[in-house]
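Priority: low. Protein: Nucleoside diphosphate kinase. Input follows.
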Amino acid sequence: MICLILSVFAQIFKSGWTGVNERTFIAVKPDGVQRKLVGEIVHRFEKKGFKLVGLKLIKASEDLLREHYWDLRSKPFFSGLITYMSSGPVVAMVWQGLGVVKTARQMLGETNPANSLPGTIRGDYCVEVGRNIIHGSDSVESAQKEISLWFRHNELQRWEHSGGRWIYN
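Result:
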């Protein structure tokens, strides 16, 4: 039932999700917050030219996390993942820009930090997969669902990026 509601909600948010209006969900996980990497991560996205349209510090409930990681529920690490993600605050963000989903995934690096290149967030700051400090949506569809799960519509801001003309043609 919750998946159906999220799918409907994602469809409501769908309009305007292409081009420079594409959005993605990024979360700095509890280990990233504890290691004081939030500012560095925000800085990287801002320097890239993406626009921050939503941000909040939240102690995610187990229900929220179970819904977020629903696709992983049959994996042996699922229970530990929920425990880890609920162990401290998470910084949830929504970023907007041209190709932001794909570019953000490249900026994050591989899920397993051992496979991440230097210069990526995980390549620069992570050692093991169980503490990989950051989550990013893997598709526009996932971003729509994740954003609607973590943010209410009125928590997302619409504003003009004054540097936009220097970023986009």
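The chain has nine helices and four strands. The radius of gyration is 16 Å.
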